[in-house]
Design a protein that fits this description.
With about 525 residues, the chain is α+β, with helices and mostly antiparallel strands. Strand 26 and strand 27 form a beta hairpin. Helix 4 runs antiparallel to helix 5.
Length: about 525
């Protein structure tokens, strides 16, 4: 039998007027929203019939409910309500208050002996209802976060050091706590300080203008630097170490000839009309991809003789290119531009694809894109302040972190080697570490004014440290932080005199390369001091 509820005297009914058993008419009335009852019904306090409810919320007895034309007495109320329904009616009364139906809300509250839920935001019930509709029709995934599980490729070695807070918890238990693994200590907590590492400058490559892009090859043997004059230099990492060794040690020479200094420069590429903004090496073959403000992606074959400075293929866009990332398979290229949609290029056909769901696109330009080592997921950082995680196969957004950096633009994102965490950097001058399994921020790193034009952060030296570079002129250098707890190790490395726009860490050792506005790219290492 259908349960009955009494409509307030002299006012419109709260909700659709339904007839028990007439499902089609009930659904039609529900879409139209509230409908008024006629004066005779209102004067007689005619009952409003709703769909069948569980026995514990039925009003009166079955015989009373079946009686035709009889109204339930106003004093009759539910004998028992589950806790979840009590919460629902509290939200309902609050929603009626929010919509201006004060007398109706008071009537329902008095009838059910409840109070409106004052602990929630305005229109909380309406927002929840809207989300449930989106989930039902596939526009949004249910829940706040979809757990991301990716596998590192190649698999982690038995002695390979990576960022793992379970292991950190075993090594650094809090005073008085049990030895079981625990989450990372909160930022600012007292933890044993390790001996600061030694920073060694190994090589400096001079350019004609500011260096705005740097990149390492997958095997760590080569690195590339991009300049605002459109030129690109390819450097040999082993030869840069040799140059450093020639000026150190008891038998080292204090002078190095210009010819020896130029040996690490394997080739110079020149094919962009404007400054180079991003670089990426192909993971399996000798190919370099470069993006520029001239709205083009150039593809260079590094097996050609050094005299070949031009690209063998071009991907032309209509927006300035901001970032590049190659899928680990080597078959696809992700491109971010001033436009809000991430581009995906098939490198076999050079065809371009974007996500078909417009709602998944960012609302600002794409500043960085990084793919997991197994190729399942990629992350995008945007000027709209959001970080999005995408399924690389379906090209659908999995998760979204809005206002990841207090609403400022997010300018870089990097995955950890174990694929459990990623670090982001934003224009709030901070770097933040996130757990991809639950979407929670573990802690943030940074200092100085909470604003800058750009910010870049990378994990380095077996993910012991995080190196950060931003446009803060008061810092004008690369800073170093402890990746395990966010504590500051070096506010300045003492290598740069102007802001370092770009920084990248080697995938195989403890070296880094930075690009600075003083027209220099610096190749340096982070080495642990011997005790």
């Amino acid at each position: 039998p259908a349960a009955r509820a009494v409509a307030p005297h002299g006012r419109g009914a709260l909700g659709p007027r339904r007839v028990a058993g007439d499902g089609d008419r009930a659904r039609g009335d529900a879409r139209r929203g509230m409908s008024a009852v006629n004066g005779a019904d209102a004067a007689a306090a005619a009952p409003m019939e709703v769909e069948a409810a569980p026995p514990e919320v039925a009003v009166g007895t079955a015989g009373e409910s079946d009686a035709a034309g009889e109204a339930s007495p106003a004093s009759a109320g539910p004998r028992e309500l589950p806790a979840l329904k009590v919460t629902f009616y509290e939200l309902l009364v609050r929603q009626l208050h929010d919509d201006g139906f004060a007398s109706e809300a008071r009537s329902v509250a008095q009838h059910l002996h409840i109070e409106p839920n004052a602990a929630v935001d305005k229109d909380a019930l309406f927002e929840s209802y809207g989300k449930s509709l989106k989930w039902a029709f596939g526009d949004e995934r249910p829940g706040d976060w979809v757990a991301v599980e990716c596998q590192p490729v190649p698999p982690l070695g038995p002695r390979e050091r990576t960022l793992d807070f379970e292991k950190v918890g075993e090594k650094r238990p809090a005073p008085g706590s049990d030895p079981q693994p625990r989450p990372p200590p909160p930022q600012g907590a007292a933890v044993p300080r390790r001996t600061p590492p030694e920073i060694r400058l190994l090589y400096t490559a001079t350019h004609k203008k500011a260096v705005r892009a740097v990149a390492y090859s997958a095997d760590g043997r080569q690195c590339a630097t991009g300049c605002l004059d459109g030129s690109i230099k390819i450097l040999d990492c082993a030869k840069m170490r040799t140059c450093a060794a020639s000026t150190e040690g008891t038998l080292g020479r204090m002078r190095v000839t210009d010819e020896e200094l130029s040996k690490p420069i394997l080739r110079v590429l020149q094919d962009h009309l404007l400054g180079v903004t991003c670089l990426a090496f192909h993971p399996t073959n000798s190919t370099l991809f470069s993006g520029s403000s001239d709205k083009a992606v150039k593809i260079f074959d590094l097996t050609r003789p050094p005299g070949h400075k031009k690209a063998f293929s071009v991907l032309q866009d209509v927006y300035a290119v901001r970032c590049l990332s190659i899928h680990p398979s080597g078959d696809f290229l992700f491109v971010g531009t001033d436009h809000q949609a991430v581009r995906l290029y098939d490198l076999q056909t050079l065809k371009c694809f974007t996500s078909f769901d417009q709602a998944h696109h960012h609302s600002g330009g794409i500043n960085d894109i990084r793919c997991t080592s197994d190729g399942r997921v990629f992350a995008s950082a945007s000027s709209d302040g959001c970080i999005s995680l995408w399924d690389s196969v379906s090209f659908r957004r999995i998760n979204k972190i809005p206002k990841a950096h207090s609403g400022t633009a997010v300018t870089s994102v990097r995955w950890s080697r174990g694929q459990r965490y990623f670090v982001s950097a934003g224009c709030d001058g901070r770097s933040r570490l996130w757990d991809v399994r639950n979407g929670q921020e573990l802690f943030s790193m940074g200092f100085g004014p909470p604003s800058c034009e750009f910010n870049t952060a990378v994990l380095t030296a077996g993910e012991r440290y995080l190196a950060s570079a931003n446009s803060n002129v008061r810092i004008s250098d690369v800073g170093l932080f402890d990746a395990a707890n966010g504590s500051t190790i070096f506010m300045k490395l003492g290598l740069h005199t102007l802001p370092a726009r770009a920084v990248e860490a080697s995938p195989v050792d403890n070296t880094l390369i930075s690009g600075c506005d003083d027209h220099n790219a610096r190749f340096f290492s982070i080495e642990e001091r011997s005790h």
